[in-house]
Amino acid sequence: MAKELTDDQKAERRAKAKARRDARKAKKTATKPTATESPEKKSTSAEEVEQKANVKAAASVAQAVMSKIGGSRKKSEHRFQTLAEDDLAFEIKGFFKYGISWLDKMTGGVPWGRITEIFGWEATGKTALWENTIANCLEQGGLPVIFEPECALEKDRLRGILLSKCALFDHLDMTIEEWHEAYDEDPNIEDPLNHVIYSDADTVELIFEEIEQIIDTTAVTDASAPILIVWDSVATTTAKAELDAEVGEQQYAQQAQIISKELRKMKSKLAKTNTAIIVINQLREQIQKSMARLSSDDYNTFGGRAIRFYATVRINLRKVGKIELTKLKAEDRKKGKQRKIDGLLIEAETIKNKIHGFPPFQKCKYPIMFYEGGITEERSTWELLVEKKKLKSSGSFWKIEGIDDSFYRKDWVEFYREHSEEIQDVVFSLPMGSNESEEQDPDEE
């Protein structure tokens, strides 16, 4: 039988019950939205608080995971870090310029720590483009290294390009012909090619071995000179097994297998250095086409699929025209005289570009002049301004939109050099087009 409560105990219980009721009432009043605060706003505010708490908790978990894993590793091994940190080893630290304004604008240049593939049919200016890039590499304080199994490099052509386009040799102030005359008188004269390293490696294995040595000895510091490696070309580089094989012995995809394996090993190392790689490749026709691929292009690049996968930038070069500075007259044509081709008009298209701010499928055109030093910034800019309708003629005078001075056509090179900064401002103010590729990617299947 329950014990009867005294009057004091009953009063105490009633007081506690009243206090509980008052507390519940006060809680309901506090959570009820006021006249100026809608229920939706209160709900949203609560969600924001909860979201911030979740983010903070996730960040603390990430820090705990990184400290736990990092603490169990040796100092020489890799470490965990958040992507918000500024010292990420794989970030692109710079670019080598091609020396063609619009191509540099639409690609950024040749990225350090990445692979750039330049490909096209024969006589599309692939070699001329990397030779032009080497001049800019030296001007930027870089060190060019050339792997050229084609054995077709013309030393005098490269020497002439460096003398005429690299500011590092402006103090010489001479053409290639004048340099040879000075060399005959003084063999100790400065040679621009002393600043370029050449390797005679002729197999895929040897080339990758030497590239890996370069990457391993390249430290990512502010004082380290960036390195530009050029491989010209994949198509002419054979595998060692092919060299050792007997005549007629079949070797299936040896080159592609080695390239795929070595790129897998090298890619992460390369991304942590100031070394840029340009791979020159050629197009080839596919002799055998299955019925399922009758609608596809019948050509692709050498070396298998690995290069196109690991390349950050891929540029396709096409020959779109021939340049004649002097047109052949009708009477001369009747006499059987041949027209003189002074150069080629090349179209470059970025088939692939993974760098932020530089979308793919952009195109630009530039001339390669046979008798004027190959690719020149002056003629390339002229073609661009004409194409973008920023260069207009009035009688015999020409004028660039945004620049007050006018000039004769024959004085363009001199005018460009005097107003180079203003002209470059006009070029880089031009909007990038969103042109889609009119032709299918040669490697697309």
Question: How would you characterize the overall build of this protein?
Answer:
The strands form three sheets. Strands 3, 4, 5, 6, 7, 8, 9, 10 and 11 form a nine-stranded mixed sheet that branches. This protein has a three-stranded antiparallel sheet with strand order 12-13-14. It has a two-stranded antiparallel ribbon with strand order 1-2. It has a domain at 95-245 and 252-286 and 297-376: Rossmann fold. Mean pLDDT is 83; it is low at 434-442. The protein has helices at residues 7-31, 39-71, 101-107, 126-139, 155-165, 176-185, 204-216, 240-244, 254-271, 306-310, 330-334, 377-387, 412-418, 420-429, and strands at residues 95-96, 110-111, 115-120, 143-147, 197-199, 227-232, 275-285, 299-301, 313-323, 343-353, 363-369, 391-394, 397-400, 406-408. The protein is of the alpha/beta class and 445 residues long.
Provide tags for this entry:
445 residues, alpha/beta, Rossmann fold, 14 helices, 39% helix, elongated
- CATH architecture assignment name of the domain at 95-245 and 252-286 and 297-376: 3-Layer(aba) Sandwich
Order of helices and strands: HHEHEEHEHHEHEHHEEHEHEEHEEEHH
Biggest beta sheet attributes: 9 strands, mixed
**Main CATH class of the domain at 95-245 and 252-286 and 297-376:** Alpha Beta
CATH superfamily of the domain at 95-245 and 252-286 and 297-376: P-loop containing nucleotide triphosphate hydrolases
Cα-to-Cα separation, first versus last residue: 92 Å
